[in-house]
Amino acid sequence: MQIPYYTFTFFFILQNPSQKHKILTLALPKNNPKIQKKMKNLILLFTLLITTISFAQTENQVNREETKTVDEYEKIDQVVIDYDKDVFIAGKVEVNPEYPGGEKAIFVFLENKIKISKEILEQQGSQKVFAEFIIEKNGRLSDIKVLNSKSPELTKEFTKALKAMKWTPAKQNNRIVRSSYMLPFQAK
């Protein structure tokens, strides 16, 4: 009678290239419960060994990683701000942009400058029109976008009135900077 055997072949590649590959073959009988338990433990141990080896790093791999000094990390975290070109958000600067005379003066100015027919006012209804723009360092407005307008004429008049305005620009770190602004307006 022939006894069935567990046959396992293990192939080891050694780290030193001058050494040859090693092959280990195990042949153990299948019908012995003690050997079966030892085989399960051996397979588990071998699996853990292979897993450990495959995730291990050699000293050379660890040393290859670039090491940085504290100063280099601080330079990475620093943001370079171009005070001439960057656009800051109004409300998030040290000194906000403002129109001379404040909010009331803005709306008085716009109501005097915007001349539209009653038809357009009825068409717009009670909806507010919004203008998004950039206040340049010289106080003039650029990149004007009119939002929520139902009439091209209202958009044109609103844009024309905004271009005529001159604001006091925003300041950040005691420097005059460009800033974005959102202005709501109720056409009357």
From TrEMBL:
Q: Which SUPFAM superfamilies match?
A: TolA/TonB C-terminal domain (SSF74653)
Which Gene Ontology terms describe the biological processes this protein takes part in? transmembrane transport
Q: Which InterPro entries match?
A: TonB_C
Boundaries of every TonB C-terminal domain copy: 128-185
- The coiled-coil segments of this chain are none
Which Gene3D superfamilies does the record match to this protein? 3.30.1150.10
Official protein name in the record: TonB C-terminal domain-containing protein
Please give the organism: Flavobacterium panici
